[in-house]
Design a protein that fits this description.
The complex is a heterodimer.
Chain A lengths: L3 H12 L6 H12 L4 H11 L3 H10 L11 E6 L2 H5 L2 H12 L12 E6 L11 E3 L2 E3 L4 H12 L7 E2 L2
Parallel strand pairs in A: 1-2
Antiparallel strand pairs in A: 1-3, 3-4, 4-5
Chain B lengths: L3 E6 L2 E6 L4 H7 L23 E4 L6 E2 L10 E3 L3 H16 L15 H8 L18 E2 L5 E4 L8 H9 L6 E3 L6 E3 L16 H5 L5 E3 L3 H9 L4 E6 L7 H4 L9 H11 L3 E4 H25 L9 E2 L4 H10 L13 H16 L7 E7 L3 H6 L14 E4 H10 L21 H4 L6 H15 L19 E7 L14 E8 L1 H12 L7 E5 L17 H16 L10 H11 L5 H7 L9
Parallel strand pairs in B: 1-5, 11-12, 11-14, 13-18, 14-15, 17-18
Antiparallel strand pairs in B: 1-2, 3-4, 3-5, 6-7, 7-10, 8-9, 16-17
Classes of the chains: A alpha+beta, B alpha/beta.
C-alpha cells in the first residue's frame, strides 16, 4: 500500500493534471483504499489545483466512489426489481445474520461492508451481488454461507471477475 | 456587432442580435418571462425551467434563459400549455420546499413566494416531501445561516461562489433525489474555506441562505435604559438603504438614514466614514513608511505590494488561500473595527461614559463584518469593540418595524466627535475608492500639492473593470521625502474575489510590481456587498457607484487629512499616525488558516 500523497501523485503523473483527469484518479485511489477520505480528496484537489468541493461533488455523484470508510470486502447486493422478486430479501437476511451487520454498516473487524446497489445487469441470473470486483449470481442462503466463509478466511471462491 | 435576426414574440416582431436569448429578446419588448435560476451576474444554468416558452413548430417547451433566438423564430409566452407547465413546475418546486412562509426570514422578499403568488398556487397536487427528509440548519457561522429545507437547488449560490468569488465553498453533491447544495464533506460553513462575503445570500432566491440577523439583540440594547447605544454607518449603506424603502437604485439617503436611526432610539449616530478617513491617515502613513524603508534605508525585508485590509471577506480569503502573503497586508484594522475600538475608549472618555455600558452597533453592506466583529483579537478597547453588526437589509427591517415613513423624514446630521467625514471616506464604499482616497492624501503629504487630477477625481481607479491599474509619478517632493523624487507609484485595484485571485496569482508568480493594491471581496466593492438590498445586479451596482461619487463631489472636504475631527483626534488622543496608541487600538494581526 502506497501512502496516499504518493499514490495521488503517481496517479496524476499517469492520467494527467487536467480537470477531466479527476475521475480516473478518484478510481485509482478507491482501488487501493476502497474509499475516498477527506485527506485523499484534499490531496487530489491540491495535485490538480481544483477546489476540494469539486472533488467532493464528483465523488458523491458516483455510486461506486465511496466517501465513508469501507471494509476490506465490499458486498453490494442488487436491490433492483428482478433480484428483489427472486429473493433478494432472503439473501440480505442471510448476510445480515452471518455478519451481524445491516445495510450500510461495516463489521467490527473491518473486513466486510454491506451495501445495496442498483441493477448489475445480471437479471437473468438473479439474485446477484458483488464482492469487490467479483460477481456472484443465482444466490441462495446456502451459497452465501459458503462464499462468505471463504472470504472470512481471505479465500475468494466462485465468482466472476468484472471490471 | 453580431448579425441581426428577426423573430416574433407573441406575434410582436422584434429584431435582435444573433445569440440573444429568448428571455432578453422578450424583455426588449416588455414581455416578462418569470425566472428563478437565472441571474444577470451568473452564467446561464437553465435548471429550474420556470422560464419555459413555446417555440411554434417545436413539440417541447424551451427554457427562455438558455435558448438563443434563431432567425424567424415564433415564440409564444402566454399559451395554455406554457401557463400550465409553469404552474406545475412551481408546484413541483414547492413540493420540495419548506414553504412555512410566515416563519421565514425571507417572507415578503422571496422569489419563489412571489412566483407562487403570481401563479396562484392554491392546491397541492404533489406529495409534500419536506416532512420525509432529514434536513439540517447550519447556523454555526456568525454571518450566514443555511437551511437546506428551503433550498430549490437552482445553484445560484454555487455559481456565485465559483464564478464571482472563486471560493467554491459550496458545491452540488450527490444525485437525483439526494442532490443537495453543500460544503466539503457537508461541514458547517463556519468550518470550511468560506469568506462570509454573503454573495450567496445576496443571490439566493429563497430563504435557504440568509444572513444571521441581530435585530432582536439590537432592539433589546436600545430598550435597555442602562445602556448607551452607539451606531456607525458604513459608506455604502447610504446608497443602498433607499432601495429597501421605496426609492430607486442609486438614491442617496444619508440624511434620512441618520434621522431614521435617531428615531429608532440610538443614543448616538456616527459615521464609519470618519474611521475611513482615519484608515487613510494610518494606511497612507504605513505605505509611505514602507516606501521609505525600502527606498531610503534599503531594507530588504519590507514587503511590496502592500495591500489594503478593510474588506473582511478579502482578509479571510488571503488567510485561507495565500497565507504566505499575510505580511503584505496593511496592519490597519478595517474602519468598522477602528470605530469600535475608539468608541469605547476615545469617545467614552470624551463623553464621560462607562465603556462597559456602551453597546457598539454597526450597519454594514456586508455579512463578513459580522464575522470580523466576532474575531477574538478585536477586543482592544478592553471590551468587544463592535457588539452587533447589522446589514443594510436588517436596518431596513428595523425601520419598517418602527413604523417610520422613511420617505417623509427630514435630513439630519451625524453626531459630533466621530461623525464628520470627507469625500475620501465616502468613496470607500466603491471599488477603487480606498485607493483614490489614499492617493489624495499620500500625494499631498509627500509633495505638498494636490493630486494632479481634475477636481481630485482619480478616474483611472474608478469604474467596474475587474482589475484596474494607475500610475502616479512623484515630482518635486518635500525635502523629507526627497528619496521619492521621480518615483512612479504603481497601484492596482481588484474587486470580486475572482479578480482578486487573478491578481494574487500574479503576485505569487512575482509578476506584480505594484506598490499598493486595493482588494475588495465583493463585485463593485462594498456597494455590491453581500448585505446590500436584494436584488443587486450590474446595473444596480453602477447606479450605487454613481451615487457614491456624487456624494463625494458634494462634500465640503474631499481629503481625509482635512477632516477637522481627524485633526482633533490626533491632537487630543492618538498623537500622530502609527503612534503607540494607534498601534494598540487601530492595528491588528492576521491568522494563517488551513485548507
Amino acid at each position: 500500500m502506497k501512502p496516499i500523497t504518493e499514490l495521488v501523485k503517481d496517479l496524476a503523473d499517469r492520467h494527467g493534471r487536467e480537470r477531466r483527469n479527476l475521475l480516473p484518479i478518484l478510481q485509482g485511489v478507491v482501488e487501493q483504499e476502497k474509499y475516498l477520505s477527506e485527506f485523499s480528496m484534499i490531496e487530489i484537489a491540491r495535485e490538480l489545483n481544483i477546489p476540494v468541493t469539486e472533488v467532493y461533488g464528483t465523488a458523491t455523484f458516483y455510486s461506486f466512489l465511496e466517501c465513508k470508510k469501507m471494509g476490506k470486502y465490499i458486498i453490494r447486493i442488487c436491490k433492483t426489481i428482478t433480484c428483489s422478486m427472486k429473493g433478494e430479501k432472503q439473501i440480505l437476511l442471510a448476510i445480515e445474520d452471518m455478519l451481524k451487520i445491516k445495510v450500510g454498516e461495516t463489521t467490527q473487524d473491518g473486513k466486510f461492508t454491506l451495501l445495496e446497489t442498483n441493477c448489475l445487469g445480471f437479471c437473468h441470473k438473479a439474485p446477484a451481488m458483488l464482492i469487490n470486483n467479483e460477481v456472484y449470481t443465482e444466490l441462495t442462503p446456502e451459497k452465501i454461507r459458503e462464499i462468505l466463509t471463504g472470504y472470512l478466511n481471505d479465500k475468494i471462491i466462485g465468482g466472476e471477475h468484472v471490471n | 456587432m453580431g448579425k441581426k435576426i428577426k423573430i416574433t414574440v407573441n406575434g410582436q416582431p422584434v429584431e435582435v442580435e444573433k445569440g440573444t436569448s429568448i428571455l432578453d429578446a422578450a424583455n426588449q419588448i416588455g414581455v416578462i418571462i418569470p425566472t428563478l435560476c437565472y441571474h444577470k451576474d451568473l452564467c446561464v444554468a437553465g435548471n429550474c425551467r420556470v422560464c419555459v416558452v413555446e417555440v411554434v413548430g417545436q413539440k417541447r417547451l424551451a427554457p427562455a434563459c438558455a435558448t438563443p433566438c434563431e432567425d424567424g423564430m415564433d415564440i409564444l409566452t402566454n399559451t395554455h400549455k406554457v401557463r400550465n407547465s409553469r404552474k406545475h413546475i412551481i408546484e413541483l418546486l414547492l413540493s420540495e420546499h419548506n414553504a412555512d412562509c410566515t416563519s421565514c426570514y425571507k417572507n415578503g422578499n422571496c422569489e419563489l413566494q412571489l412566483l407562487a403568488s403570481e401563479y396562484k398556487i392554491m392546491s397541492q397536487d404533489f406529495i409534500h416531501l419536506v416532512p420525509f427528509r432529514n434536513y439540517t440548519i447550519d447556523d454555526f457561522s456568525p454571518s450566514i445561516i443555511k437551511d437546506d429545507s428551503k433550498c430549490i437547488r437552482c445553484q445560484r449560490c454555487v455559481r456565485t461562489c465559483a464564478e464571482l468569488q472563486s471560493v467554491n465553498a459550496l458545491t452540488m453533491a450527490h444525485k437525483g433525489e439526494y442532490a443537495m447544495i453543500t460544503t466539503f464533506f457537508e461541514k458547517s460553513m463556519n468550518d470550511v474555506i468560506c469568506t462570509n462575503c454573503g454573495q450567496c445570500v445576496n443571490h439566493c432566491p429563497t430563504g435557504a441562505l440568509v444572513e444571521k440577523n441581530y435585530i432582536e439583540e439590537v432592539w433589546s440594547a436600545i430598550s435597555d435604559k442602562d445602556k448607551y447605544v452607539v451606531i456607525q454607518t458604513a459608506p455604502a449603506v447610504r446608497v443602498g438603504l433607499g432601495e429597501e424603502l421605496g426609492f430607486d437604485p442609486g438614491s442617496r439617503s444619508t440624511g434620512k438614514m441618520v434621522a431614521a436611526l435617531k428615531r429608532l432610539g440610538f443614543d448616538s449616530v456616527m459615521d464609519t466614514d470618519f474611521t475611513a478617513d482615519l484608515t487613510i491617515m494610518e494606511e497612507g502613513t504605513e505605505l509611505l513608511t514602507r516606501l521609505k524603508k525600502a527606498l531610503a534605508e534599503n531594507d530588504k525585508t519590507v514587503k511590496f505590494p502592500m495591500t489594503t485590509s478593510c474588506s473582511p471577506g478579502w482578509i479571510k480569503f488571503i488567510e485561507h488561500l495565500y497565507p504566505e502573503f499575510l505580511d503584505h497586508l496593511s496592519s490597519c484594522k478595517s474602519p468598522q473595527q477602528m470605530f469600535g475600538a475608539l468608541v469605547k475608549t476615545y469617545y467614552a472618555k470624551a463623553r464621560k461614559l462607562d465603556p462597559a455600558k456602551i453597546v457598539s452597533v454597526s450597519v454594514m453592506p456586508c455579512t463578513a463584518k459580522k464575522f470580523e466583529a466576532a474575531r477574538p483579537e478585536m477586543h482592544d478597547s478592553g471590551y468587544r469593540d463592535v457588539d452587533y453588526v447589522l446589514t443594510t437589509r436588517e436596518l431596513a427591517i428595523m425601520i419598517k418595524q418602527a413604523g417610520i415613513d422613511f420617505k417623509k423624514l427630514d435630513d439630519m446630521h451625524f453626531d459630533r466627535l466621530m461623525g464628520e467625514s470627507t469625500g475620501a471616506g465616502v468613496i470607500f464604499g466603491a471599488t477603487g475608492g480606498v485607493m483614490e482616497a489614499a492617493l489624495r492624501t499620500a500625494y499631498e503629504l509627500v509633495t505638498g500639492r494636490e493630486v494632479p487630477f481634475e477636481n481630485l477625481d482619480i478616474t483611472p481607479v474608478r469604474g467596474m473593470e475587474g482589475v484596474r491599474e494607475a500610475k502616479i509619478k512623484i515630482e518635486n517632493p518635500l525635502k523629507e521625502w526627497s528619496f521619492l523624487d521621480g518615483v512612479e507609484l504603481k497601484c492596482a485595484v481588484a474587486h470580486g474575489l475572482t479578480n482578486v485571485k487573478y491578481m494574487m496569482d500574479k503576485v505569487r508568480a512575482g509578476k506584480a510590481d505594484y506598490h499598493f493594491i486595493e482588494f475588495m471581496a465583493c463585485p463593485g466593492g462594498c456597494l455590491g456587498g453581500g448585505g446590500q438590498p436584494i436584488p443587486t445586479s450590474p446595473e444596480i451596482r453602477q447606479r450605487r457607484a454613481e451615487a457614491i461619487y456624487a456624494e463625494d463631489a458634494g462634500m465640503p472636504f474631499r481629503k481625509s487629512h482635512e477632516n477637522p475631527e481627524i485633526i482633533k483626534i490626533y491632537k487630543d488622543f492618538l498623537g500622530h499616525p502609527l503612534s503607540e496608541m494607534s498601534h494598540h487600538l487601530l492595528h491588528t494581526k492576521y491568522t494563517a488558516r488551513g485548507m
